[in-house]
Design goal:
The chain is of the alpha+beta class. The chain has one domain: Fumarylacetoacetase-like, C-terminal domain (Fumarylacetoacetate hydrolase, domain 2, Alpha-Beta Complex). The protein is built from 7 helices and 11 strands. The strands form 2 sheets. Strands 1, 2, 3, 4, 5, 8 and 9 form a 7-stranded mixed β-sheet that branches. A 4-stranded antiparallel β-sheet has the order 7-6-10-11, with no helix packed on it. The longest helix is centred in the N-terminal third of the chain and has 17 residues. It is globular, with a radius of gyration of 17 Å. The two termini are 33 Å apart.
């Protein structure tokens, strides 16, 4: 397990075994396969797709999570491994931006990890945006249903600051909630902060994040923006995962959602995301 004080390159690629349990197809197979093929193409080419619902027909949320799972299963077959999970739309600001009214989750694999010292290549995405988030590192496995915030607290090894790179593979960032779910909850990458802090040393609700771009402050917010407390986010996640036969494992990294709205970045931008107790993440976009 990574230790407190380790640098980001030492964290996020720990050796968790590939676990494909529960990755399976549910529902409308033809429409699901059409969504899968188009989302894969958008991710590989950096060219966003027209509305999947308008082009191929709608899917339920459950069917959309199955699409997400099948796309992740392809990455596992290609040699990637699961490193954790992200939860999106946990703040009112992002819910309003996306026009949705509930959180969504996505799965993070080993290709998600970016290093702050290396520029983020904007052309590798359809249209990339950044979010400042509080990340949990799990010290023990945890399975729902019925998990409480106290259970999450006991199972947490440490807390880190993180930047999530998000990208919408639907044109104009105009995706329905089912399209967002199928698109892995818009996950496109993460950059971890420089340190890990024991959870007992933090007031998660009062942990502050400040986002700057090119020296200008974009936004500032606190941990309570994430469902009232980031602990509530992880609690929601582990209980939601149980519905789909998944669980949290020792070593998993959990992103708890943007505390502010997300901000688009492009080539030439310098991004600075700082936390009150979790360090600073600075990187450029090329």
């Amino acid at each position: 397990m990574p230790k407190s004080g380790m640098l980001p390159q030492d964290i996020g690629l720990w050796d968790n075994p590939i676990d494909e349990t529960g990755f399976h197809r549910k529902g409308n197979e033809m429409t699901q396969q059409q969504w899968i093929d188009r989302l894969r193409k958008a991710r590989e080419t950096g060219q966003p797709a027209d509305s999947l619902e308008s082009t191929f027909g709608p899917l339920t949320i459950e069917e959309a999570y199955a699409v997400q799972e099948m796309l992740i299963a392809e990455r596992l077959t290609a040699g990637e491994r699961i490193i954790g999970w992200k939860v999106g739309a946990t703040s009112q600001a992002v819910m309003e931006q996306l026009n949705i009214h509930e959180p969504v989750y996505g799965c993070m694999t080993s290709s998600s990890v970016h290093r702050a010292k290396n520029p983020v290549i904007g052309s590798a995405f359809c249209r990339v945006a950044v979010e400042g988030e509080i990340a949990f590192v799990m010290g023990d496995s945890l399975s729902g249903p019925g998990v409480t915030p106290s259970d999450v607290l006991s199972a947490t090894s440490g807390i880190m600051g993180a930047v999530e790179l998000v990208d919408c593979r639907i044109k104009g960032w105009k995706a329905t909630i089912a399209e967002i779910v199928a698109d892995n909850a818009l996950h496109a990458g993460l950059i971890l902060g420089p340190t890990r802090v024991p959870v007992a040393e933090l007031d998660l609700q009062k942990e502050r994040v400040t986002l700057q771009k090119n020296g200008n402050v974009l936004a500032e917010a606190y941990g309570y923006e994430a469902l009232g407390d980031p602990l509530n986010v992880v609690t929601w996640l582990v209980n939601k995962l149980a519905i789909f036969d998944h669980h949290l494992r020792e070593g998993d990294l959990i992103l708890t959602g943007s505390l502010t709205k997300y901000f688009f970045v492009s080539a030439g931008d310098a991004v600075d995301v700082s936390f009150s107790n979790l360090g600073r993440i600075q990187f450029s976009v090329a």
